[in-house]
Design a protein that fits this description.
Elements (H helix, E strand, L loop, with lengths): L2 E2 L5 E2 L14 E7 L1 H4 L16 H9 L3 E2 L13 H18 L4 E5 L2 H5 L4 H16 L4 E4 L13 H20 L3 E2 L29
Parallel strand pairs: 3-4, 3-5, 5-6, 6-7
Antiparallel strand pairs: 1-2
Helix pairs in contact: 3-5
Protein backbone atom coordinates (compact mmCIF):
# COMPACT_ATOMS: atom_id res chain seq x y z
CA UNK A 1 0.00 0.00 0.00
CA UNK A 2 1.06 3.58 -0.47
CA UNK A 3 -0.06 7.17 -0.81
CA UNK A 4 -0.52 8.93 -4.14
CA UNK A 5 1.37 12.13 -4.73
CA UNK A 6 0.16 15.14 -6.71
CA UNK A 7 1.05 13.40 -9.98
CA UNK A 8 -1.04 10.36 -9.14
CA UNK A 9 1.96 8.10 -8.56
CA UNK A 10 2.02 5.79 -5.56
CA UNK A 11 4.70 6.54 -3.01
CA UNK A 12 5.50 4.83 0.24
CA UNK A 13 5.68 1.08 0.91
CA UNK A 14 4.15 -0.13 -2.38
CA UNK A 15 6.59 1.98 -4.35
CA UNK A 16 9.55 0.74 -2.38
CA UNK A 17 9.89 3.98 -0.48
CA UNK A 18 10.16 4.69 3.21
CA UNK A 19 7.33 4.24 5.66
CA UNK A 20 5.24 7.33 6.30
CA UNK A 21 4.40 8.09 9.91
CA UNK A 22 1.65 10.48 10.89
CA UNK A 23 2.35 11.90 14.32
CA UNK A 24 -0.44 11.58 16.85
CA UNK A 25 -1.46 14.95 18.33
CA UNK A 26 -0.16 15.43 21.83
CA UNK A 27 -2.76 16.05 24.52
CA UNK A 28 -2.42 19.44 26.17
CA UNK A 29 -4.51 21.07 28.89
CA UNK A 30 -5.14 24.40 30.57
CA UNK A 31 -5.08 25.47 34.21
CA UNK A 32 -5.62 28.90 35.66
CA UNK A 33 -7.90 31.90 35.81
CA UNK A 34 -10.24 33.57 33.33
CA UNK A 35 -7.42 34.53 31.00
CA UNK A 36 -6.93 30.80 30.50
CA UNK A 37 -10.58 29.77 30.58
CA UNK A 38 -11.55 32.25 27.88
CA UNK A 39 -9.10 30.87 25.35
CA UNK A 40 -11.50 27.98 24.75
CA UNK A 41 -15.18 28.77 25.00
CA UNK A 42 -17.05 27.02 27.80
CA UNK A 43 -19.45 24.22 26.77
CA UNK A 44 -22.56 26.37 27.32
CA UNK A 45 -21.43 28.70 24.56
CA UNK A 46 -21.73 27.55 20.98
CA UNK A 47 -18.60 29.28 19.76
CA UNK A 48 -15.51 27.09 19.74
CA UNK A 49 -12.31 28.44 18.30
CA UNK A 50 -8.72 29.18 19.20
CA UNK A 51 -7.80 31.66 16.50
CA UNK A 52 -6.82 34.55 18.75
CA UNK A 53 -5.06 35.33 21.98
CA UNK A 54 -2.01 33.81 23.59
CA UNK A 55 -2.99 30.15 23.39
CA UNK A 56 -2.75 29.70 19.63
CA UNK A 57 0.54 31.62 19.65
CA UNK A 58 1.94 29.41 22.41
CA UNK A 59 0.84 26.18 20.75
CA UNK A 60 2.46 27.20 17.48
CA UNK A 61 5.62 28.22 19.33
CA UNK A 62 5.93 24.80 20.97
CA UNK A 63 5.20 22.87 17.81
CA UNK A 64 2.39 20.87 16.29
CA UNK A 65 0.63 18.50 16.28
CA UNK A 66 -1.13 19.21 19.56
CA UNK A 67 -4.72 19.14 20.65
CA UNK A 68 -6.72 20.89 23.36
CA UNK A 69 -10.43 20.16 23.67
CA UNK A 70 -12.91 22.07 25.82
CA UNK A 71 -12.83 19.22 28.33
CA UNK A 72 -9.10 19.82 28.75
CA UNK A 73 -9.65 23.37 30.00
CA UNK A 74 -9.91 23.29 33.79
CA UNK A 75 -9.42 27.03 34.27
CA UNK A 76 -12.03 29.19 35.98
CA UNK A 77 -12.63 32.91 36.25
CA UNK A 78 -11.38 34.48 39.46
CA UNK A 79 -9.10 31.57 40.32
CA UNK A 80 -5.99 32.11 42.41
CA UNK A 81 -3.01 29.78 42.40
CA UNK A 82 -4.34 28.20 45.61
CA UNK A 83 -7.69 27.58 43.89
CA UNK A 84 -5.90 25.88 41.00
CA UNK A 85 -3.97 23.62 43.36
CA UNK A 86 -7.02 22.71 45.44
CA UNK A 87 -9.70 22.44 42.74
CA UNK A 88 -8.19 22.10 39.27
CA UNK A 89 -5.25 19.80 39.99
CA UNK A 90 -7.54 16.97 41.23
CA UNK A 91 -9.53 17.17 37.98
CA UNK A 92 -6.34 17.10 35.93
CA UNK A 93 -5.02 14.14 37.93
CA UNK A 94 -8.18 12.12 37.33
CA UNK A 95 -8.16 12.83 33.59
CA UNK A 96 -4.44 12.19 33.29
CA UNK A 97 -4.89 8.71 34.78
CA UNK A 98 -7.15 7.84 31.83
CA UNK A 99 -5.35 9.57 28.97
CA UNK A 100 -2.01 11.13 29.90
CA UNK A 101 -1.28 14.76 29.10
CA UNK A 102 1.93 15.85 27.42
CA UNK A 103 1.86 19.50 28.46
CA UNK A 104 -0.36 21.74 30.57
CA UNK A 105 -0.48 25.50 30.16
CA UNK A 106 -0.61 27.67 33.27
CA UNK A 107 -2.06 31.16 33.33
CA UNK A 108 -2.57 32.25 36.93
CA UNK A 109 -1.35 34.83 39.40
CA UNK A 110 -3.14 38.07 38.64
CA UNK A 111 -5.84 37.37 41.20
CA UNK A 112 -3.20 36.50 43.79
CA UNK A 113 -1.56 39.91 43.62
CA UNK A 114 -4.93 41.65 43.34
CA UNK A 115 -5.95 39.94 46.59
CA UNK A 116 -2.85 41.24 48.33
CA UNK A 117 -0.84 38.01 48.53
CA UNK A 118 2.79 38.53 49.43
CA UNK A 119 5.51 37.95 46.86
CA UNK A 120 6.89 35.02 48.85
CA UNK A 121 3.47 33.37 49.01
CA UNK A 122 2.93 33.86 45.28
CA UNK A 123 6.26 32.23 44.43
CA UNK A 124 5.78 29.38 46.93
CA UNK A 125 2.36 28.53 45.50
CA UNK A 126 3.62 28.68 41.92
CA UNK A 127 6.30 26.15 42.87
CA UNK A 128 3.72 23.96 44.60
CA UNK A 129 1.64 24.02 41.42
CA UNK A 130 4.63 23.13 39.26
CA UNK A 131 5.48 20.24 41.59
CA UNK A 132 1.93 18.90 41.37
CA UNK A 133 2.02 18.91 37.57
CA UNK A 134 5.48 17.43 37.15
CA UNK A 135 4.57 14.78 39.71
CA UNK A 136 2.03 13.48 37.20
CA UNK A 137 4.67 13.22 34.49
CA UNK A 138 3.32 16.29 32.69
CA UNK A 139 5.43 19.21 31.44
CA UNK A 140 4.11 22.54 32.79
CA UNK A 141 4.18 25.52 30.43
CA UNK A 142 3.84 28.92 32.12
CA UNK A 143 2.99 32.03 30.15
CA UNK A 144 3.59 34.38 33.06
CA UNK A 145 1.10 36.62 34.78
CA UNK A 146 -0.72 38.56 32.08
CA UNK A 147 -1.64 42.28 32.27
CA UNK A 148 -4.76 43.25 34.18
CA UNK A 149 -6.31 46.52 35.28
CA UNK A 150 -7.12 49.76 33.47
CA UNK A 151 -4.89 52.04 35.49
CA UNK A 152 -2.12 53.88 33.72
CA UNK A 153 0.52 53.60 36.40
CA UNK A 154 2.64 50.89 37.97
CA UNK A 155 0.95 49.43 41.04
CA UNK A 156 2.28 47.26 43.85
CA UNK A 157 0.32 44.32 42.45
CA UNK A 158 1.90 44.72 39.02
CA UNK A 159 5.37 44.94 40.59
CA UNK A 160 4.73 41.59 42.26
CA UNK A 161 3.55 40.11 38.96
CA UNK A 162 6.74 41.20 37.22
CA UNK A 163 8.88 39.79 40.03
CA UNK A 164 7.07 36.45 39.83
CA UNK A 165 7.50 36.38 36.05
CA UNK A 166 11.22 37.05 36.42
CA UNK A 167 11.46 34.23 38.96
CA UNK A 168 9.58 31.79 36.71
CA UNK A 169 11.77 32.62 33.70
CA UNK A 170 14.92 32.04 35.75
CA UNK A 171 13.50 28.86 37.28
CA UNK A 172 12.69 27.47 33.84
CA UNK A 173 16.14 28.32 32.51
CA UNK A 174 18.04 26.81 35.43
CA UNK A 175 16.03 23.72 36.44
CA UNK A 176 14.47 22.30 33.28
CA UNK A 177 11.28 21.55 35.24
CA UNK A 178 9.22 24.24 33.54
CA UNK A 179 8.79 25.74 30.10
CA UNK A 180 8.31 29.50 30.27
CA UNK A 181 7.15 31.38 27.19
CA UNK A 182 8.29 34.98 27.09
CA UNK A 183 6.09 37.62 25.53
CA UNK A 184 2.70 35.86 25.50
CA UNK A 185 1.23 38.88 27.28
CA UNK A 186 2.04 41.01 24.26
CA UNK A 187 -0.54 39.08 22.22
CA UNK A 188 -3.36 40.32 24.45
CA UNK A 189 -2.06 43.56 25.95
CA UNK A 190 -3.72 46.87 25.22
CA UNK A 191 -0.67 49.01 24.57
CA UNK A 192 -2.71 52.19 24.28
CA UNK A 193 -1.89 52.72 27.95
CA UNK A 194 1.25 51.84 29.82
CA UNK A 195 -0.37 49.18 32.00
CA UNK A 196 -3.73 48.58 30.37
CA UNK A 197 -6.27 45.77 30.26
CA UNK A 198 -5.84 42.56 28.41
CA UNK A 199 -7.78 43.24 25.22
CA UNK A 200 -11.27 41.78 25.29
CA UNK A 201 -11.09 41.19 21.54
CA UNK A 202 -8.40 38.59 22.20
CA UNK A 203 -10.65 36.55 24.51
CA UNK A 204 -13.16 34.12 23.03
CA UNK A 205 -16.06 35.39 25.11
CA UNK A 206 -14.97 39.03 25.19
CA UNK A 207 -15.12 39.59 28.92
CA UNK A 208 -13.42 42.73 30.21
CA UNK A 209 -10.27 42.35 32.23
Amino acid sequence: RGIKNASGNVVGLSAGGKSIYLAKPRKWGLLGDSIASQNIAVPTINTYYRGSGWLIWAMARLGWPADIQMADNYAAGGATTRNVIDSQIPLLRAANAITPYDRVFISVGTNDSANGNSLSTMIAEQLELIDAITGMGITPVHIGILPRGNDGAMTDAKRKNLRVNDFLAHYAATTGRLEYIHGCHESVANNATAYGNALTSMMDVNILH
